[in-house]
């Protein structure tokens, strides 16, 4: 559980409630784009500043926004909120030969997430971002990680992640420390979605062979 003596931050709770309302009945929030200062800020650790009701509404709204985009992850900074919170979710598709090692990744709210590499293996694939809309670039990431996070009830989790789920977790966790995937991408591989599909899906990129991700994070 989050700290027993933690008190709800009434002002922050009010701000978050107002933010949620901007999503309307559809519960879809605008996604902050690159250049907004909030994407470059270190987020504040979550330790119970929101009421349980407000936190649940926030997580639900973030999930709806993510799925509508569509994406497989969304960090709080991407909706303009500087809290260490993200949502992730993806499901196995029909591409049996997909080299990204996609695996079922059920919906999670990941609070105060962190990760460490589990081994030295890396993988490079095209990666996109809902806050850098319209583009993708090749990004090298750890193939295996040990992921840690708290859930909405304050329970701590530790799990080994591999392949595509590990990439999603790394991407969203990096957001919460002010990093965008493009910061360490192979810039020469940067391409629009349209040109990625037309030219690069089945061919080597200027650095390492990669496949289209198809979803942004």
Structural overview:
The chain has 217 residues and is of the alpha+beta class. 23% of the residues lie in helices and 27% in strands. It has a single domain, classed as Peptide deformylase (Peptide Deformylase). The protein has helices at 10-21, 52-68, 163-175, 193-200, and strands at residues 73-75, 85-90, 105-117, 122-128, 135-142, 144-150, 156-162, 185-192. It has a five-stranded antiparallel beta sheet with strand order 1-2-3-6-7. It has a three-stranded antiparallel beta sheet with strand order 4-5-8. Strand 6 and strand 7 form a beta hairpin. The longest helix has 17 residues, at 52-68.
Spatial order of strands in the largest sheet: 1-2-3-6-7
Overall structural domain count: 1
Number of strands: 8
Instruction: Name the assembly state.
Output: single chain
Uncertain stretches: 204-215
CATH T-level fold name: Peptide Deformylase
Q: What percent of the residues sit in helical stretches (DSSP H or I)?
A: 10-25%
Q: Strand portion, in percent?
A: 25-35%
Mean pLDDT: 90
Query: Class, according to the CATH hierarchy?
Result: Alpha Beta
How many strands, what sense, and barrel or not for the largest sheet?
A: 5 strands, antiparallel
Computed Rg: 17 Å
CATH superfamily descriptor:
Peptide deformylase
- N to C succession of SSEs: HHEEEEEEEHEH
Structural class: alpha+beta
Q: What is this structure, in a nutshell?
A:
The protein is α+β, with helices and mostly antiparallel strands and 217 residues long.
Key terms for this structure?
about 220 residues; alpha+beta; Peptide Deformylase; 5-stranded antiparallel β-sheet; 4 helices; about 25% helix; globular
């Amino acid at each position: 559980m989050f700290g027993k003596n933690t008190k709800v931050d009434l002002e922050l709770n009010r701000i978050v409630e107002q933010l949620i309302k901007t999503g309307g009945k559809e519960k879809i929030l605008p996604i902050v784009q690159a250049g907004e200062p909030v994407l470059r800020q270190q987020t504040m650790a979550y330790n119970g500043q929101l009421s349980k009701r407000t936190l649940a509404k926030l997580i639900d709204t973030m999930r709806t926004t993510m799925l509508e985009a569509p994406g497989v992850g969304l960090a709080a900074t991407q909706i303009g909120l500087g809290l260490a919170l993200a949502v992730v979710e993806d499901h196995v598709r029909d591409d049996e030969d997909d080299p990204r090692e996609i695996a079922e990744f059920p919906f999670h709210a990941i609070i105060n997430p962190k990760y460490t590499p589990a081994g030295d293996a890396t993988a490079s694939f095209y990666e996109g971002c809902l806050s850098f809309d319209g583009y993708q670039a090749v990004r090298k990431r750890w193939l295996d990680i040990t992921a840690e996070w708290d859930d909405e009830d304050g329970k701590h989790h530790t799990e080994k992640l591999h392949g595509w789920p590990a990439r999603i977790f790394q991407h969203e966790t990096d957001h919460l420390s002010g990093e965008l995937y493009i910061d360490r991408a192979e810039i020469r591989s940067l391409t629009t979605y349209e040109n990625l599909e037309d030219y690069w899906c089945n061919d080597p990129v200027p650095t390492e062979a990669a496949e289209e991700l198809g979803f942004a994070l």
